[in-house]
Design the sequence.
């Protein structure tokens, strides 16, 4: 089984971190690699950056399909481009917000999300609703640390997770950024409830879906997009009869 | 007051149609223009195309800000890139799905959405939920006609709208595609309940928000994105200190 | 276009205030007048008063229909009698709670309502639910100032709006009383997020619906009521074959 | 214990029917009487009529308070004026829609409402939501028979109830009109699931609340309304310091 | 009419208390007795104990059916085994959580539940959702006193109820344990809003359903279970053709 | 890693089937065994049988804890006793309804449940709500075949699944009975959308949680139950200081 974890931003250190985190939890016999786009923002902390990360993400899906990848994990907590990616991929595509929330709801009854900047909590709540966890999610909190600085801000992250447990009554915590992946264990030790990293959760859930032989229906919402002309800078992204996506 | 309606696809005839539809309903003294991106898909009928339409849409927002535009209408029923656009714009940005649903819920009690292809109904339902109309929307129907062929498929559109009224009990119909704008009056005459076109609805609602002096809070979710490096094809879309967005 | 704003209480100063607020935002060419009933309570701060304000409101709708008014705004935050009014009127009827919530949800993501007396918050929450804003509305707060004293209580109103922003995370505020209309700008300046007055919002939204040519379906829930005998004090309010409503 | 059932319309035969239905189910020792207003519509089949029935209903509550009535049932399926009545009454006030839905949800898992005219289903659904039965209520159906003709339309009522059971999967039926009270047993025999009449349900639930010693909190939403001037036709309904309501 | 209140735990003093509380509110002519199982836990403070209380509860239902009991109240706030009991009983079965929440929502607008141990609040919230009171219930609080010690912890109970009123804005309080039944009046006096004990509420509601002649549909979800072999310790609990349940 | 799948009924052939289905999807290195209780019903098709299956299920959890099992799957679609089991187990416990719904919502947008007897659909819907899939689940259907006869009723199962796809618009189907496990592949081939068997889904999800190191919080709702006396037939199930559960 070949899983690919895609970091939708262009920061190499984060791609490496994500790859390590995914490989730790994969089953024996599962090949996991981690890639990043050739274009787009250095990190994703706004709707604007999320939108501009998607073309590069889709390029990586197209390349993965050519290589026969079995399933993908999109490693940004806004789950950018996941629906679009599903139209290109033959196998499952899971976002790390989706994966982490599913996992948290399987071990706890009321989870909290603890993320980076407050400005991203609107998107997080939107995903909570989309995935059906409105009742299960008791709070979305931000520790107000930028994505690329999160590694040095462990104490603030732990503090915010503790507040989620003590003030909101959370019995599980979802870490709201791929950059927090390697802090998961240490935060869990300190807060005393299960703490979920979406990169690891996405890896095992994608692996699970492949093991079950599940892939989106070939018709309907996630069918391949209709052949269509693409112009300007994005020429090269069109869908053609002879090649699902022809990335320049 | 200067309103700009942005067609997020690259089909000129559709941009012209959208501009006409918007100008019909604007108040005296409101200047309305219609533009389209320099890049992207010819029409939007999938998550994939929607995602790839957004960079060009954002480019148009950046250009509009340089010109002092007061408010924007995004004229595709998936409301692509609306949140990202709000981070760039000083004034209001409204999607036509959002606008049409708000208008429908102000004149009826139970509206139905009638859109183009069945594969887009998932996105339409997602927007129904996001905007709070889960109880107000009794059905999302598709007439299975592609966006660029809708003008010649009036009979199928009317049939589907009639089913919404007779079978689903809708007392208002929302047309689910910008390309249906000029069919609104004739469809309304035939189905006997109010029929709402989002291009017109977006125009008057954007105008309303400007008249009220309302614009998103300068802090919080829709604050300008942080300065950030952008690489690859999308270089030129970075946010800089001296210019909000520097489109190449 | 002829819009009529109806103050459902019998206090002349408030009718004048409401008229001024509405005219400020109306488009050129829109005639706006403001009226009040010949019967009913001096202000509305309970379910009891709201119920007794409705006959006088309906009387004004009947008079407006005789004059050919195009649309109505009901200027009390409980939106009293709006559904009944829709059965009498040919054009749109909007309540100011409905209008303000719609406008707030178009510029912010999470609005709060700040109203007069705590005893009215139950009705406000009921309207939040009815209009679909259960997720969008993060708080309903009261500043515990009576309707007719609100003009002298600006500081308390500003305090409560600030709490909505700082404690509840609201990024927009809806003012929960028609009597607050002229405080809207000053409160907005102080709290730093968009603040919405329902009288102004109702005016531009009613105007928008008329511009769109939208009016409730002639059949169904808002069809004219069946002809029916009315006895006692309320005789004169019956629906007759030759006149929709014969107000004594 | 003294219960009063108020028919909010002015048709004597219906008041008599309602009184009989209530007395059948009351416990030994409970005095039940049935009254009707001195003003208002002959029957209630629209929002308009519902609104104009409320002053007369409130008059009857005020008279009942003077007589020391312990609890009230409002016998119209739109539950008109119930919140206003709670502000005047010391004891509980229950609407028959509320009562019937509570009772149905205590014996079945998925109830349907079967009412008179289709135009009243919007109000019925609104009450379903208000009382928390959105998930429990699988359908709101109308048999399109006017209120005052329902007694002669038993077959159509039975047909519609059967459809609720067979097509909607209802395992309980709520009759959506006080005028259906005496049809309850016969309909129940024919459709094979529990059928609930709100007049009877309201009687036993009001009796239950009195037995429990429960009455609305003296402070808060249902506190007596503030003293207030009332003008015009409705003078006489003002709240005064020396008398809660002075009905002319 | 013969009502039976079943204490699902095996503590005699609690059974006695429950019987007294039920008899106080029953109507003249209603016979109320209180029983307890022959097996199971001494008190119920976990999912584990709740599960193990159910066989003994079902045994009591089977015995009651042999005696011709008309309706049952299950007197533990987790409403254990209520659906299973409904399949055995010909008449209504009500849990005290269900009963108390229904009663509270008939007199107040926003109730809070105050229960024993924090670990049981998950189950309480689940029941709030199941019964449709998600919007009506503003808080579920625990006073962290074990079930069998609640009688000596009146002050902590009152404190927690006061917080529900003052901090959560509750206008009614539901007591979350059968063991609190006799504290209901005194707590109500101290907190100033209606306080509901589920044992009393269950008694009057069960009595109400019998008076209405309502019992679950004989087909569908609550039909008698299919005849089935039962093995091991639970042999004797099988359903047989000649006897609904043959308890050893 | 040692996973245990518990068939909560006492039919050996079904335990064998469940074991086979689980082992097919487990990763290399994961030991999976399948067990059944020493007491309880031969199959589970009612609330009554579900309740009586739980003691035997809990006995198996207690035995598994003594053996050091890492995680459990409860292989009955009603997810009986799952919360109680979580209090006894150190590792994760997943029900097959929960597992199947999570998996379906990861590959499709709108799933349907197709189960055995119509009488069990109430419980299925309750679980849909509990797990947050109210919006994701478009229908719960029954093919009216008893659990132990399902293997010979493939055609009826396929028919019902097809109706879910064609009439309800489902793009994924959840099989609502452990006995359907080996029909999953063939049904999937016939209906053309992903079909999910909960036994397999539970196995890979339980395995995933163990790989992530996630287990319920040691405090809170799923903490070990308090030490407590158990009497009668169920003596031997008490929680003691020296042994978590002492099954006789």
Sequence:
């Amino acid at each position: 089984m070949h899983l690919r974890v895609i970091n939708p931003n262009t920061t190499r250190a984060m791609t490496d971190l994500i790859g390590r985190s995914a490989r730790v939890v994969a089953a024996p016999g599962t090949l996991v690699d981690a890639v990043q786009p050739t274009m787009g923002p250095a990190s994703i902390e706004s709707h604007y950056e999320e939108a501009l990360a998607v073309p590069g993400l889709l390029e990586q899906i197209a390349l993965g399909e050519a290589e026969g990848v079995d399933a993908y994990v999109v490693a940004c907590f806004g789950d950018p481009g996941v629906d679009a990616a599903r139209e290109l991929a033959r196998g499952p595509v899971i976002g790390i917000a989706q994966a982490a929330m599913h996992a948290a709801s399987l071990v706890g009854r009321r989870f909290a999300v603890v993320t980076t900047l407050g400005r991203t909590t609107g998107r997080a709540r939107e995903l909570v609703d989309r995935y059906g966890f409105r009742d299960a999610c008791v709070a979305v909190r931000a520790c107000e640390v930028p994505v690329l600085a999160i590694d040095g801000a462990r104490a603030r992250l732990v503090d915010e997770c503790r507040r989620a447990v003590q003030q909101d009554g959370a019995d599980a915590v979802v870490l709201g950024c791929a950059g927090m992946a390697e802090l998961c264990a240490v935060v869990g030790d300190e807060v005393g409830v299960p703490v979920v990293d979406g990169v690891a959760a996405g890896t095992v859930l994608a692996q699970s879906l492949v093991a079950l032989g599940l892939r989106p229906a070939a018709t309907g919402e996630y069918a391949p997009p209709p052949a269509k002309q693409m112009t300007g800078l994005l020429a090269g992204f069109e869908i053609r009869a002879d090649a699902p996506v022809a990335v320049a």
Chain B touches chain A through 51 residues (CB under 8 Å).
